[in-house]
């Protein structure tokens, strides 16, 4: 295997709808993304929109309701690793139609009947790899998928208890009891909608990239505020944390080859042909070499959280399914994340071994109701721990209570503190060379603004 | 499908080594199991022993060191569901050889050199189904598998840091650094040994049952106290909790078709042929019928923690892969647990559909260091919650500080409080009709007695 064998095999993406120009590293400016409303999915970024009966023409911004831009504050930094920004973000209001309208409905009437909509807020970060293509597609598409998924179940969401049948028809007299016993709540329909939206978006990205001859993938971290509750869905290694007065709590966990080792090894155990005889499923503390043959060395397999010793055989010298430590860990020597969108075409260089069977687009869901959320791509977390970010948030906000731009300033300050220019408030002066995106989302003001609909 | 289609397909087990006679329901007596020491694995319950170089003749009890019988207190009740007790238990001292001895070594010398052994304590509960055969085999075998697994790694366990090579030879100068970076500690070797022991024991049970034409399976809940730490390994629906002065903490979690729904559905998604077209992978709040056809009903699939609606098709009317609610939930209409030992031959009645691919023998591991552990089979937990058991433990022990039999009495009291005879100290008078086994293990006195070796 050549030295370049495990290099990421991507080139910067080709032409795609409205990629953001790279930003100069020295002066990050607040990110303002065009708002999206119902029907914005019909842009080129979501090619399936024309086939959906609910895809309507983009409404003119002037006619839409004002977006709560102060609902979230984003900063994005381009590390100049690639021509286009591999970090992409999207945020805006979600308008979910509560009633069934025919395709011929009057747009004006829809605008007037605001109570026929359930509104929520949406924030999303996508960290691309192999070019920005998948991240841009996801930023343009996922909210439309989510809106459609939510509209498909909205009748159940606004009911006191989700009915067994969406029609409200009761086939079996004890249907409400069955639903009650399973403990199914309106929140579970939102969670299900987010899970299905990730799957749908992944399929759209797969089709779009194939059709346009592009490649790549991205992580996805999404926060949705709906009916007074915050939902966080994560697939990849971005992170969201909740900062409260006396505590800091993770709202997501990272999915990397290391954190998902047992699931990935288990799949290779059940389907050894996925490795095509080129990799070993076993984990060792380092890659083995000829001198280790016949020795008893530390190892672990799919069924083990602990470690044991095994006598090294020739097949153990193959390249490991998961190799490297911490942020250097790679799946099949190629990918640093184990969940995300895209990568349908991705193969190990010079082989036919596919990454996708090991890579899931299934997000992990968290449900929260309080305080301040910080969402950021990995560049921030490389340099600052949860606790350091919490300390920065807690020390910054109380002194800036009157500043209407304090959340935006906080996002900016968090990014600056990773650039090693002024040692930052952490005083540790660590430096990040990655793209960085940060959202700061104040939950309480969200709750006051949008807990109704 | 007939009404009896989902009945457990087992008959009481045939002759097996030393099954305990059924105990009368009315008067549970303290359980005293013959102690096991090194080499006890050469009995008929562990057929692989003769092939191991370390399998030695059973040492006469009179020559072994005294077992700390007051280390754990067990109560077992037979609900008279079957001729033999389906609950089985084992406990005793684990003696792990620290040095390599040849087969010809003088037994006397071994006895004199106690410091060449690492000693620990072992408690295990096995809740059988389809007869007691698997539970009896597990009670007679698992400790031998564990001893062998521990002996295979003991040099690494007693080192300051487990070496990369068991020989201590350093093939690569930075080997200690690789081990350090992976964070591998001596505890991880004990965890790995427990995980491997479960796998090995499962294989032994599979071979033994097949050879003797018997069937069945069992859950396994194992606690091991070694080098001042408590390890709990669980596969099935028994439970261990830690009771401390101000808190109660679960030491295990249950593995049932409900708690492992996503793993099981995922396997059926990847391998649809495992269901032979007879089952549907999807979960619905109740089993669907013809009237539901064409309706949109609540469902969830392998990638969903939440719920959504789908239009019912004919294939959705099949029997569900997982059906029923709570303790009634069954895997393929057959099994109430999703992890355990045995069941290699188990098939859905009148079909060729195997349970084993969905059933794992992989335990979940917890590591603890303090206070009081209560281990019990499901009969106790059916009637008493963790909090109720904790309340009973906390109210009983302080008033009985001087009683040398107080832990034994506590185990007896816990079982009595499930029999509805005297309303028990809970005053709730709920009654269990299942076999019940209870261990009460005081950790601090364990720590004092055996933290050395």
TrEMBL record, chains A, B:
**One Pfam family name from the record?**
PP2C
CDD domains per the record? Answer: PP2Cc (cd00143)
Biased amino acid composition, Pro residues? 14-27
- The UniProt regions of compositional bias labelled Basic residues, in chain numbering, are 1-10
Q: By its UniProt entry, which InterPro entries does this protein fall under?
A: PP2C, PPM-type-like_dom_sf, PPM-type_phosphatase-like_dom
Q: Where is this region: Disordered?
A: 1-63
Record-annotated PPM-type phosphatase domain positions: 100-443
Identification of the protein by name: Protein phosphatase 1M isoform X4
Tell me what organism the protein belongs to: Vulpes vulpes (Red fox)
Q: Which gene encodes it?
A: PPM1M
């Amino acid at each position: 295997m050549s030295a370049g064998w495990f290099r990421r095999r991507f080139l910067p993406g080709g032409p795609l709808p409205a990629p953001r120009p790279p930003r100069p590293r020295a002066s990050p400016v607040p990110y303002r993304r065009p708002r999206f409303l119902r029907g914005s999915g019909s842009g080129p970024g979501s090619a399936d929109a024309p086939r959906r009966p609910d895809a309507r023409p983009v409404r003119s911004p002037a006619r839409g309701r004002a977006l709560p831009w102060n609902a979230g504050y984003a900063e994005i930094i381009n590390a100049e690793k690639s021509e286009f920004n591999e970090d992409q973000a999207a945020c805006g209001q979600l308008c979910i139609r509560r009633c069934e309208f025919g395709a011929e409905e009057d747009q004006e009437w829809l605008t007037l009947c605001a109570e026929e909509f359930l509104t929520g807020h949406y924030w999303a970060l996508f960290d691309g790899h192999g070019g920005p293509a998948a991240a841009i597609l996801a930023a343009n598409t996922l909210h439309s998928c989510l809106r459609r998924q939510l509209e498909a179940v909205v009748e159940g969401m606004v009911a006191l208890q989700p009915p067994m049948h969406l029609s409200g028809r009761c086939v079996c007299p004890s249907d409400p009891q069955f639903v009650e016993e399973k403990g199914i709540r309106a929140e579970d329909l939102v969670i299900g909608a987010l899970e299905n939206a990730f799957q749908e978006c992944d399929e759209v990205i797969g089709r779009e990239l194939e059709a346009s001859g592009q490649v790549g993938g991205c992580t996805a971290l999404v926060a949705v505020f709906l009916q007074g509750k915050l939902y966080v869905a994560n697939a990849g290694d971005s992170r969201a944390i909740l900062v409260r007065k006396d505590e800091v709590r993770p709202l997501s966990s990272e999915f990397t080859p290391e954190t998902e080792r047992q699931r990935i090894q288990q799949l290779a155990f059940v389907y050894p042909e996925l490795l095509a005889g080129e990799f070993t499923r076993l984990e060792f503390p380092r890659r083995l070499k000829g001198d280790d043959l016949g020795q008893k060395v530390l190892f672990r397999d799919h069924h083990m959280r602990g470690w044991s010793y095994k006598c090294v055989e020739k097949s153990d010298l193959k390249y490991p399914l998961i190799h490297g430590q911490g942020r250097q860990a790679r799946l099949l020597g190629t990918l640093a994340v184990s969940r995300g969108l895209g990568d349908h075409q991705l193969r190990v260089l010079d082989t036919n071994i596919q990454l996708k069977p090991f890579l899931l687009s299934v997000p992990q869901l968290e449900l929260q109701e309080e305080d301040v959320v910080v969402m950021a791509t990995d560049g921030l977390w490389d340099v600052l721990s949860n606790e350091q970010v919490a300390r920065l948030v807690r020390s910054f906000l109380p002194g800036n209570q009157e500043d209407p731009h304090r959340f935006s300033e906080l996002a900016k300050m968090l990014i600056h503190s990773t650039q090693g220019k002024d040692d930052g408030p952490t005083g540790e002066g660590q430096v990040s060379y990655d793209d960085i995106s940060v959202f700061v989302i104040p939950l309480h003001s969200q709750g006051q603004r949008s807990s109704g609909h």
